[in-house]
Specification:
single chain; about 270 residues; mainly alpha; Four Helix Bundle (Hemerythrin (Met), subunit A); 10 helices; about 0% strand; globular
Length: about 270
């Protein structure tokens, strides 16, 4: 359906390149983001968002298509014997699913903004993905790997627990920041803190590389090489344990500071910004 100007004239249909450029200019800061998300997933998501927008797909439809690719790949991890062909297909599906997960929010921005229902759907699908991914790896290890003991299964099971807690902590921290921001009338977070986040160096992106879901997707290429896959996967698990411990301490301290912010006088209107 063509959009029309105030004079009733049909406006030209935007091109995919123009939409991608528009999304790139409005993209949230990449600074401090994990490397795969920063340099691969977000640019790829912009391309898919432009295609989805031109085909009049809703953000929720994009989220569901993303889940279709992702959950099909997760099921294949658990059910299909590791091989080069299977690893390539699984990785490709995970990469497409992750890019579409980035695209749904960008489609929402192109259509004038998202909805609470859309945000809820996106987070629930993400939670399910993180919970089942490592359980599928555990099933694959049990069925297809010769590990020499069931104790090795504690690695993917532990990774599942860490991933779920990390995701919940991120979502809860963001929600409480919004609550504190609304409580303080929009001044809960000092400008210096916001500026520091926006100016995080490239080095920070590289440091958090083991915490990057996109990197985890690429690691699935190593599944046919059992020993190599186990070594890389275990190293990522150990790094994520450290990140969770360090992040939890930092977030708890931040929440302690935010909880001491007094509410403004009753006469000052308090309007949440979400």
């Amino acid at each position: 359906m063509l959009k029309r100007s105030a004079a009733g004239e049909a406006l030209p249909r935007p091109t995919r390149a123009a939409i991608v450029a528009r999304l790139a200019s409005a993209q949230k800061s990449n600074r401090g983001a994990p490397p795969y998300s920063r340099w691969v997933n977000r640019p790829l998501g912009r391309q898919l968002a432009a295609i989805a927008y031109l085909r009049h797909l809703t953000p929720n439809a994009v989220s569901l298509i993303s889940a279709l690719f992702t959950y099909a790949a997760i099921a294949a991890i658990a059910l299909v014997r590791p091989s080069a062909d299977a690893a390539i297909a699984i990785t490709a599906s995970l990469v497409i699913g992750y890019a579409l997960d980035s695209a749904d929010g960008q489609v929402a921005r192109l259509r004038g903004g998202g909805s609470m229902a859309g945000e809820w759907l996106d987070h629930v699908l993400d939670a399910g993905k993180l919970a089942t991914f490592h359980l599928a790896v555990a099933i694959a290890w049990f069925r297809f790997f010769h590990l020499g003991g069931a104790a090795f299964l504690l690695i993917p099971l532990g990774f599942s627990a860490v991933a779920c807690v990390f995701f919940f902590a991120l979502i809860l921290t963001d929600m409480l920041r919004r609550v504190a921001d609304a409580k303080a009338g929009g001044d809960a977070l000092p400008k210096a803190t916001i500026d520091a986040r926006e100016s995080a160096p490239v080095l920070r992106s590289l440091i958090v590389l083991p915490n990057d879901y996109g990197v985890l997707c690429l690691v699935m290429l190593l599944m046919p090489l059992h020993v190599t896959f186990i070594a890389v996967y275990t190293a990522m698990f150990a790094a994520n344990v450290v990140f969770l411990a360090a992040g939890s301490l930092r977030w708890f301290r931040e929440m302690s500071r935010l909880s001491r912010i007094p509410s403004p006088p009753a006469s000052v209107p308090q309007t949440p910004r979400w």
